[in-house]
Every structure is written in structure tokens, then in C-alpha cells.
Inverse folding.
């Protein structure tokens, strides 16, 4: 008797299939009763049932930022990406693209690759040595007596991938959302001048935050707490997210300096033909986005104490260091800073309902020489410290959400992007549950 592969199942319902009907109905009611303008109810941050629903409705259905092409410079280079129960292999192929495969051996489910990153030829499972090529095809499965074993039926399961302006996105849905094409057209012109394909990794940091993934994203989407980031405040204007009628008296002088820097940056961008306008569609499209080019304080070049460049090498074909930062937010799991001298990417991968991995990667020009053109400690200092501070803020919020005395609180005007993120999340989950 020959062995054949079972018919594939759709993504929808895989993770929540075993949940009690009552738990699902209770969760649906929470989504339907979401109070606009207020933080979410505690179960959204603490309930394992809602976490499983998030993994299915958001992380199994939408495009996620996984890595940059700079992390996979050569064919055979790979990274593994894990979130919730999902593990993916993102592998650079011979044609310059990437193959994305589920990191689950088709024999008995063992992890095929266990390292975070590396280089490989064939993919060999360490359990029984089932071997797959770079396309995920099973090419070796030696087993005594298996005369009619059809290896073609047992390749690694595939996921979708896209490379846009050097950023790699993955989606494990059977049919990924199609509006990502339109979102890509929005951000590609902003990012292309920085030319990620001609960068390399200077440093990568993985932080585990003891908090729900939504709290991590909420914290990123506002600067109301930025007084808690003294290193970042040297170069990032603390008036970010404010409007003229919401600027407190102690920041009025900073507000005026920011506006003057904005005018100078806009003139510089027009001179070089760089897009800079704000595009903000965080909750009005499935692939929500906010992107703009914004000035930095001091010399306006980089995230340093005086705003001076941190690498001597300009990225891509840029002709000026004083370009502030091109800031991009993408729903649901990423944000980015593109500067003249380096790039910082951030990706968020949920682990459990109360634990999240935040991965930060610093990229510099591929011909920049460490110790000559840049110093790693200086390059990474601001965001390393900011990440540590943000981790503490997120963990405080998770502890509060777990308290029986937690109540929903109102978002302030400067936290409008938090409201947009939560509104996007609620819409997507209601669509999924419907």
C-alpha cells in the first residue's frame, strides 16, 4: 500500500477548534462590546482563549514583517521566525527571492531547523534525517521496507512571502489579504532610496517582554510616555503625536523648534526628490500603515545625543545625512526608522498571552567598517536603552491588567494612534469571527 499525504486544511479554525463554545461566545461578546476611545478589557491581555483567537485571526491571516533581505545576503542563508505555536523557515533561494516553509517535519512533526539563523544546503531533520531541498521538497527519507513510499507527497508545507524594498513579509493564510499590494505601493518610494539590499546587520537584539503583544504595540504607537526615554529625547522631538492645541507649556519652545526643523527638512526632501508627506491609514485598510519623513533634533542626522551621524557611510544613493527619520508603522507587528546613516527595524512576535518577543535590528551600509565607520555601542545605545525602558512600561501594564481592580481608561488625544491600532485589531477580529 502506498503512503499519500492528507488533504490540506484551511488556516481558519485550526487553533480555536478545541475551545469550548461558551468561551468562544464570551470572547465574541467582548469584541462586539469594545468601548471606543478606551483601553481594552482585561481579558484581551490575559485570557488564553483570546490569545489563541489572536493567533488565528491576526497572525495566521495577515502579512507579518519577518526580516530584511540584509539578514539573508546569500543563497542558503535562513532565519527562523516563531510566534505562538507557529515556526517558519525563511530561506534565501538561488534566484534572489525567499522561500518560506513551516518548520515542521512531515514525518512526526519535529522542528527541522532549531537555530535562529544560519546557512544551509539541504534541510535535515535531526530526528530521523528526513531531508528536504531548498524548495521544501522531500528528497531523502530512508526507511527499511518502505517500497511504495511516495516522497513527493510529503514536502514541507509552504507559506506566502513578499519582498518589498528589501523587507520580507510572510503570511500563512491560504488566501492572504490582497490590499497589501496597495500598501506596498505607498511605502516603497519612501524606503527605496535607503537601499536595504546594500546594507548589512550591525547588531540584532532579542528582548522578551512579560506582556501581551497588544500592549507592546500600544506602547509603540504613542509618545505620551516619552519623558521616560531620556536617551531618545535627545534626538526625537518629544512633541511627536501632539498638535498645536495640545502642546503643554513646558514643550512650547520644543514645538517651535520642531516646526522650524520640519520646514527645513521638507525643503531638503523637495531638493532631493524624496517623499516626506504623512500617509496615515492605520485603521482604514486591512494592511494598515502610517509613514512620513520627520525631522530629528540637534544636528538632525541620527539617534545620538547631539543628533550627529552614527555611521560615516550614507545609505544607498542618498546625498545628505540630514534627512531626519523616515518612520513607518505597519499593522500588526512592526515599526521602522530609516535614516541617512542607518536603519532600525522592529518586529513583534507573540509567545503566550503574557509574553512577547521584540526583535530589533540595526542595519548599516554594506561597505561600512566596524570600528572605523561606526561604533556598535554608540550606534545601538539609544534604542537599546529605549527598548529596556519600554519593556518595563509594558510589564507594568500587564501586571495591572491582571489585577481584579483593573478598569478601562480613556486614551488621551496624543494617543490617537493607539486607538487606531485597537480599532484596526477589533475590526479584523470581528471580521474573522463572523
Amino acid at each position: 500500500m502506498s503512503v499519500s499525504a492528507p488533504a490540506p486544511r484551511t488556516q481558519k479554525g485550526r487553533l480555536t477548534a478545541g475551545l469550548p463554545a461558551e468561551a468562544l461566545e464570551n470572547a465574541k461578546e467582548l469584541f462586539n462590546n469594545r468601548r471606543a476611545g478606551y483601553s481594552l478589557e482585561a481579558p484581551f491581555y490575559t485570557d488564553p482563549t483570546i490569545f489563541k483567537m489572536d493567533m488565528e485571526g491576526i497572525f495566521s491571516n495577515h502579512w507579518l514583517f519577518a526580516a530584511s533581505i540584509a539578514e539573508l545576503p546569500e543563497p542558503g542563508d535562513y532565519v527562523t521566525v516563531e510566534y505562538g505555536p507557529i515556526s517558519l523557515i525563511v530561506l534565501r533561494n538561488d534566484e534572489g527571492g525567499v522561500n518560506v516553509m513551516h518548520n515542521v517535519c512531515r514525518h512526526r512533526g519535529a522542528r527541522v531547523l532549531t537555530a535562529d539563523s544560519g546557512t544551509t544546503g539541504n534541510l535535515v531533520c535531526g530526528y530521523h534525517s528526513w531531508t528536504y531541498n531548498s524548495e521544501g521538497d522531500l528528497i531523502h527519507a530512508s526507511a527499511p521496507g518502505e517500497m511504495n513510499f511516495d516522497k513527493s507527497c510529503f514536502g514541507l508545507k509552504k507559506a506566502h512571502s513578499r519582498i518589498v524594498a528589501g523587507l520580507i513579509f510572510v503570511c500563512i493564510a491560504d488566501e492572504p489579504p490582497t490590499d497589501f499590494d496597495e500598501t506596498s505601493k505607498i511605502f516603497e518610494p519612501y524606503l527605496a532610496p535607503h537601499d536595504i539590499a546594500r546594507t548589512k546587520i550591525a547588531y540584532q537584539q532579542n528582548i522578551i517582554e512579560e506582556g501581551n503583544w497588544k500592549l507592546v504595540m500600544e506602547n509603540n504607537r504613542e509618545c505620551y510616555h516619552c519623558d521616560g526615554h531620556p536617551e531618545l529625547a535627545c534626538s526625537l522631538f518629544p512633541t511627536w503625536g501632539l498638535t498645536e492645541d495640545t502642546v503643554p507649556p513646558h514643550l512650547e519652545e520644543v514645538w517651535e523648534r520642531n516646526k522650524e526643523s520640519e520646514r527645513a527638512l521638507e525643503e531638503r526632501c523637495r531638493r532631493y526628490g524624496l517623499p516626506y508627506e504623512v500617509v496615515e491609514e492605520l485603521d482604514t485598510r486591512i494592511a494598515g500603515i502610517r509613514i512620513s519623513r520627520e525631522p530629528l533634533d540637534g544636528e538632525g542626522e541620527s539617534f545620538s545625543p547631539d543628533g550627529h551621524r552614527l555611521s560615516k557611510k550614507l545609505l544607498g544613493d542618498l546625498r545628505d545625512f540630514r534627512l531626519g527619520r523616515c518612520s513607518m508603522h505597519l499593522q500588526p507587528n512592526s515599526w521602522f526608522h530609516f535614516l541617512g546613516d542607518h536603519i532600525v527595524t522592529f518586529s513583534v512576535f507573540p509567545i503566550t498571552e503574557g509574553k512577547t518577543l521584540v526583535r530589533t535590528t540595526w542595519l548599516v551600509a554594506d561597505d561600512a567598517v566596524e570600528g572605523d565607520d561606526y561604533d556598535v555601542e554608540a550606534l545601538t545605545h539609544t534604542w537599546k536603552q529605549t527598548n529596556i525602558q519600554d519593556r518595563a512600561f509594558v510589564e507594568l501594564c500587564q501586571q495591572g491588567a491582571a489585577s481584579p481592580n483593573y478598569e478601562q481608561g480613556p486614551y488621551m488625544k496624543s494617543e490617537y494612534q493607539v486607538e487606531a491600532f485597537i480599532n484596526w485589531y477589533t475590526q479584523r477580529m470581528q471580521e474573522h469571527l463572523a
Notes: The chain has two domains: 63-176, 181-433. Residues 1-10 have pLDDT under 50 and may be disordered.
